Amino acid sequence: MNSKRFSPTSSTIKSRFTRRFLRALLKINRQRTRTPSSPMEICQRYLKVKLAADVSMASAVGSRRAWSRAMLAKIRHGVRAGSTTSLAMRKRKIYHGKKSTKEVGIVGNAKVLRKLVPGGEAMDTCSLLDETFHYIKCLSTQVKVMTRIADQLCST
C-alpha cells in the first residue's frame, strides 16, 4: 500500500482508525480458510469486518465521546454482531413505519436519532445533536478509508 496515504505517524482519528482497522483486517485474513467460502462463512467474515470497523472507529475516538463509549460497551458485553440483522430491521422500521402525529418535528427527529446513535437514548437533545454530528463525521471518515483500502487492493 502507498505509505503516503496511510501515514502511521499522524495522530488524527482517521490515521488511528486506519492503523487499527488494517491490523484487524490482517488478523481476519490470517484466520481465513483455504477452501472456497460457503455463504455462512462469507456472512461470518462480513460480520467480523463490520465489527472490526466499529471497534477500530470507536477506539480511535476513545472515551471522549458518548457514542464511542456506548459502542465499545455494547461490543464488550456481546450486544453486537448478532444484532446486525435486528439493527437493519429497526432502521427499516424507523424509515418506513407509519408516523404518528406525536412524532412530528424536533421531538420526533430526536426520537429517531436516539435510536440510531449509539448511547443516544440517555442524551439530552443538545448533546444528542453534538454526538450525532461527530458520529456522522466518523462514519464518513470510515467510509472514505475503507473505500481507499478497497481501491488500493483492487488496483494491485
Automatic annotation (TrEMBL):
Pfam families tied to this protein? IBH1_N (PF26576)
Q: Keywords, A to Z?
A: Nucleus, Transcription, Transcription regulation
Molecular-function GO terms, alphabetical: protein dimerization activity
Q: Which domain of life is it from?
A: Eukaryota
What positions does the domain IBH1-like N-terminal occupy?
11-77
Where does the record say this protein resides?
A: Nucleus
Which GO biological-process labels does this protein carry?
regulation of DNA-templated transcription
One cellular component term from this protein's GO annotations in UniProt: nucleus
Where is this protein chiefly located?
Answer: nucleus
Q: Where are the transmembrane segments?
A: none
Note the coiled coil stretches, chain numbering. Answer: none
UniProt keyword annotation of Transcription present: yes
- The protein depicted here goes by the name IBH1-like N-terminal domain-containing protein
Q: What organism does the record attribute this protein to? A: Castanea mollissima
Q: What is the lineage of its organism?
A: Eukaryota, Viridiplantae, Streptophyta, Embryophyta, Tracheophyta
